[in-house]
Amino acid sequence: MRVTDRWLLVETFGGEGRQPTVIALGETPKRMLALESVLGRGGYIRPLRAMIDRVAATGEAFRGMTRDGRRQLIADPLTSFAGHVNGVYAWAGPAGQEPPPRSAAGAWYFNRTTGLIGGSDDLLDLYGVAPQDRRQTRVTAEAFTRLLPGADETQALALLARAEPGSEYQGRNWTVRRDDGELRAVMLACRVVEETREDGRTEVVVRGVTQDIGPADTSPAAPRPARVALAQRVIMAEREPGRHRAIVDLRTLDVLRWIDEPPPGVAWEANGAHRPAIHRADLRTAVQMSRVLADEDRVEETLRVRAVSGDWTPVSVTAALMLLDQHTTAALVTVSPLS
Predict the structure, then answer these.
(1) Which of 103, 135, 169 is the last residue of a domain?
(2) Is 121 within a domain?
(3) CA–CA separation, 328 vs 65, rounded Å?
(4) Does 130 map to a domain?
(5) Separation between Cα atoms, residue 205 and residue 159, nearest integer Å
(6) Where are the alpha helices (DSSP H) in 12-90?
(7) DSSP alpha helix (H) spans, 134-208
(8) C-alpha closest to that of 111 among 206, 1, 9, 232
(9) Do 174 and 186 touch, CB atoms closer than 8 A?
(10) Strands 85-94 and 8-11
(11) How many domains does the chain have?
């Protein structure tokens, strides 16, 4: 057996018929490999797998030894605020040896049924978020306030828009801007799964893990980490004062990501007294706009949206069809407050 002294980061996203896979060896991302592909099929693979399964099921850290006493088994869960163990850090090192340092990582989820997302304290540690600024629940668009997308951003956005159970994504060209301003390169891995609630309702959830893989390359010769691919897919006009562009899910009408700064005074985060919303009387118009884009390239209407004050404020909304990948479309929406 090829035994490594580096930490294994194992995803435990679940999903029908899915077994845990290795997504990183130390700080080196791996493409969701079976444990046997990384460690071989020797005598330690069974206790290591049993340890990972136990931690995933209980959410509790594990410390133990192999039966022959030659190796120590250590595992720590990465648990999201929703309570699911999305990943396990596992190590099977020689008895008496101190485990090596390991990179920061955290769990997160996107509930595509409710439109709400959440992370974990580990993830907020990675982001450098102060205790007073931590929240357990946000909306989808807030994910990109600290996370700068990579070159395959549209692939990740397409997964969110389709939300097909079993779909997976893994990318290593993303950057986190920590709250202290430091830029860190990160790896993201996720899978779409179905969750059944106690009342029998089924929700579609994207379960994921983010791992810090080192300082971001900010040299002039480095490829841009953020919006290059998206700019190539969407003809990006120069930003104009008073216009605020966003990528919107045509199915749910959720904002996936703001391209520009969100409109001032409009409720778009989950941390205020009033959640983002379209006025009930205007929802039919918004849905019709989504349908019109099936036949037309562009549509414009006036909608009332929730203001941070709780009132309703009218805005001009222009939507254009955009292609995330060859199978997935979204809307490039421009919001302009009315004077």
Answers:
(1) 103
(2) no
(3) 48
(4) no
(5) 11
(6) 35-39, 45-58
(7) 153-162
(8) 206
(9) yes
(10) antiparallel
(11) 2
Q: What pTM was computed for the model?
A: 0.91
Q: Is residue 242 part of a domain?
A: yes
- Written as one letter, the residue type at 79 is T
Residues 296 and 289: their CA atoms lie apart, in Å, by 10
CA distance 230 to 244: 16
| Helix, strand, coil abundance in the chain, percent, nearest 5 | 20, 40, 40
Nearest to 139 by CA among 168, 117, 158, 161: 117
Give which of 124, 76, 86, 56 is closest to 209, Cα–Cα.
86
DSSP state of 266: B
For residue 95, give the CATH number of its domain.
3.30.450
Residue 327 φ/ψ, nearest 5 degrees: -115, -10
Main-chain phi, psi angles of 104, to 5 degrees? -70, 145
d(CA 333, CA 339): 19
Dihedral of alpha carbons 88, 93, 97, 102, sign? negative
Q: Choose one of 45, 78, 103: the last residue of a domain.
A: 103
The pLDDT tens digits for 240-290 are: 788 999 999 999 999 999 999 999 999 999 876 788 999 999 999 999 999
Residue type, 330: A
List of residues 6+ apart from 206 with CB closer than 8 A: 109, 110, 111, 112, 159, 160, 163, 190, 191, 192, 193
Q: What is the pLDDT of residues 290-316, one digit of tens each?
A: 999 989 989 999 999 999 999 999 999
How far is the C-alpha of 252 from the C-alpha of 225, rounded, in Å? 28
Alpha carbon of residue 27 to chain centroid: 19
Supply the range of the domain harboring residue 26.
8-103
The number of residues making up the chain comes to 339
